Amino acid sequence: MAETPDARVAVYLDFDNIVISWYDRVHGRNAYGKDRQRISENPNDPEVTDRLRAAMIEVGAIIDYAASFGTLVLTRAYADWSSPVNAEYRSQLVARAVDLVQLFPAAAYAKNGADIRLAVDAVEDMFRLPDLTHVVIVAGDSDYVPLAQRCKRLGRYVIGVGVSGSTAKSLAAACDEFESYDSLPGVVRPVKTAPAAVAAPAEAPSVEPAAPVAETATKPKTAPKRAKAKPVIKAEEPRVEDKVDDQEVATQLLERALRLGHDKADADEWLHSSAVKTHMRRMDPSFSEKALGYRSFSDFLKSRDDIAELEETGHERLVRLREP
């Protein structure tokens, strides 16, 4: 269904969710929560402006990815557009024919206003537009799991898009296909910056003991106090353990897919690499070789040559499980 030529696509963006998640991805965990008050009170502060600019969302990358599935029938973005953080995107969204749904600042009892409004509109569109074939949900909140499941029960192909590290696993599993925002073409990933080397304190020069002085000598002056350095805001880097876990999970997923593929066919039979990748995406819709740092699925297979044997003949790429 993902490759239907006359596919008609509906896109729903929980814009606050994706903006906050990407801000935290760039500047560190809970960075937006720490900076929220400062952003709302001093949106024109140079440091605030620089941090917001560094975490800008590439709206075009999301829209172009959704358009790869078929004709965009409707595209809606839900947010409080009076907020200075979201106001920066209005011209971009309008230029891409995105409908801006205004959500006024909600009280504490209505904190899930965007989730409820988006879900109600999506389900209504399923019945109002029966020719819709694909639904793209741009969010990372597990609150959208029932919506994804309902769309699938109504016969739609559900694609999820969320920021890596901020998307609930349950939402990715509820979709037919899930893509990390980090791996979309046109998105610049956060660059790791090496921590600045801290200079070791210079050793005090050895001083020979001075001759005794008269009692009338003046007391030596005390050394001036050092001025405290201003704290530098640093982006929190993702833990190495998380990345290692992602690689291990992908390796285990590949091995399971190959074993299941061989169970359906002969044990020594070669499998088409595209079929193996499709099977892996069905088992885990969040799988993406690009998010793991590989340019193609073939490169991903070559990096796992201890369990996968790859054979490339012309345009055909075959793979099978390498037994020990």
TrEMBL record:
Region described as Disordered: 203-244
Family annotation (Pfam families): NYN, OST-HTH
InterPro entries named in the record: LOTUS-like, NYN, OST-HTH/LOTUS_dom
Compositionally skewed regions (Basic residues) per UniProt: 222-231
Domain HTH OST-type positions: 246-323
Top-level taxon: Bacteria
Compositional bias annotation for Basic and acidic residues: 233-242
Comp. bias regions, Low complexity: 203-221
UniProt-recorded name of the protein: NYN domain-containing protein
